[in-house]
Every structure is written in structure tokens, then in C-alpha cells.
Amino acid sequence: MKWAWLLSIASLPASAATFLPQTEASILLQRIADAPRHVSYEGVFVTQHGDRMQSLFVANRPEGTASGSHLKALDGEKREVLCDKSGATNIVFRDGQVSTEKRLSARHFPDLLPLNAAALANWYSVRLGGMERVAGIDCQLIELAPKDVFRWGYMLCIEKLSNMPIRAVMLNGQGQPLMQSAFTSLKLGGAPDLPATSLPPVPDGTRPVTADSIEVRSLPPGYTRITAVRRHIPNHPAEVEHWVFSDGLTYISLFMEPATHPVETVRGQSKHGMTNLLTRQVGNIQATVLGDAPWPAIELLATNLEPRR
């Protein structure tokens, strides 16, 4: 298999060192989070999600007047993503036509950790591993082990001088890889060219939720609601209400729409166990909880929904 080497990295053991004290872990996590926002880079990385694999070119200028990043798919459908301070825009080239769409998030590999990454040390234990080489660059393995069953684990390999992740693997509870990204070529520093764009402003197609239609009695520890909008989703005729919950690394969506008939409870899981889903009726609403998150997190959120009083 062409990219079989990616599958082996999740089994790389961390060093025998113990997990870092929480204060040290917080400092390291914040450095890793800040690196992709403060470093110029360009290169090609490969992302594997289940049986799907894709190569992408990425260029990034750090925070400043000309900051931004550019992603371009190198195989499959021709598409690009442009990110700047105003957000992120998907650009798809199909049948001689160009379509654009606002993205809800401007985050992408290697920008993996949230702005306030230090808080992740409340929910993940951090341990230093050995040295590896990725795309000809020395990097250190960093293990993020979840402290409970409500989030996946991660193995990062960070470039020692910048602390930037150049390889990342999401792991399930058995240490098996669920999703992984790694640079195959990378240039750090310099001033990469970003495409000049004459795209007209793209409406984000969302409206803010002004009144909650349901209540969430309990969330998994560390999760908060970060988005609540009304929007249209592909292949769905009606507008839905879309809430997003996150601990900074794991994201769970809640989609709500009127229940036009009694809703049967449905539980689902993707082929490789990364994405979990639970649909149930809450009052007169059909609620679907969906995310690349462990089942206990999906189930806890979905079963703690009740009609707004």
C-alpha cells in the first residue's frame, strides 16, 4: 500500500517517562497551538480518514496584515480553501463552473489546537516520546491521552524549534488510528506566496439562533457550546438549527428540525468507528447528535436534551 507507513505510526511507543505535571503540560500545549499561527510554512501533506486518502498543498503566512493560508487538493475533486481574518471559503471547480461556500471553521492541519490550548491539560494527560523524522525533519513525539471516555487520544510529532505539528494521529481507546495527517514535504520560514483572489464576498448562509428551542441538561466534561446557527445543509430541503459543542479538539454537532411525524431513535457508527450518531425525538423536534467523537460523548449529549420550558 502506497501510504502504509502512515498506519504504523500509531503503534510507536512513547518514552518510559511519566506524564508531565499539569502546569508543564499546559505550557507545552499552548506552544504547540501558537506555532502554526506564528510560523510561515508551505508544503504538501497527506491526510488519511478510514479508507480515504488525500494529498493537499498548504501555504501559510503568520498573523499580521497579510496573514492567511491557502489549501489546495492535489487529487480528487479540484478544490481550494482560502483562510484569512474574516474566515474561510471553500472554492470548488466543477464542470467549468466555480462555486464558493463559507466554512464554519478556518482551522486545518497543522493548526489543530484551540487558541486557549492550555486548558486542554484539564482533559488530556501529556507525555513526551522519542525523536522521529517526518519529511526529512526531526520531530518529537507528544502523546495526548484522554483522562476520560469522552474524547479521543492523539499522537503528535512536533518540530523541535518551532513546536509545530508535522504529523498528527487521532487514536481510539485501543490505540488504533482513526485519522492521520503528515507532511511529505515542508519548508519552514520564508514568505510563501498566497493566491490573489478577486472573489466577491461570500455570505456564510447562516443566521444566529436568538432563542434556544431545547435545553441541554448535561454536557461531557470540558465541552461547551461554541456555535448556534440556522443554516441549510447539502441534500436537505429545509433549514436546520445547528449547534456545535467542543472541548477544543473534539467537535460534536447537534442538528434540529421540526418532527413532522414520530421519530424513531436511531444509533449509528461509521465503518471505522470514528463518527457516531444518535437521532431521537425531543418534544416536537427531531434532534440528531453527530460527531467524530467517542460514543459515550454522543450518547450523554443526546440523552440529556429536553424541550425548552
Commentary on this structure:
This protein has 3 helices and 20 strands. By secondary structure, the chain is mainly β. The protein has 2 domains: 4-188, Clam (outer membrane lipoprotein receptor (LolB), chain A), CATH 2.50.20; 206-307, MucB/RseB, C-terminal domain (Phosphorylase Kinase, domain 1, 2-Layer Sandwich). The strands form 3 sheets. An 11-stranded antiparallel β-sheet has the order 6-5-4-3-2-1-11-10-9-8-7, with helices on one face. Strands 12-14-15-16-19-18-17 form a 7-stranded antiparallel β-sheet, with helices on one face. Strands 13-20 form a two-stranded antiparallel sheet. The longest helix has 17 residues, at 22-38. It is globular, with a radius of gyration of 20 Å. The chain starts with a helix and ends with a strand. Mean pLDDT is 87; it is low at 1-16.
The tally of beta strands, per DSSP, is 20
What would you say the CATH architecture of the largest domain is? Answer: Clam
Shape: globular
- Which structural class is indicated by helix and strand composition? mainly beta
Helix count? Answer: 3
CATH topology of the largest domain: outer membrane lipoprotein receptor (LolB), chain A
What strand order characterises the main sheet? 6-5-4-3-2-1-11-10-9-8-7
Q: Any low-confidence stretches, pLDDT <50, length ≥5?
A: 1-16
Structurally, the number of domains stands at 2
Gyration radius, in Å: 20 Å
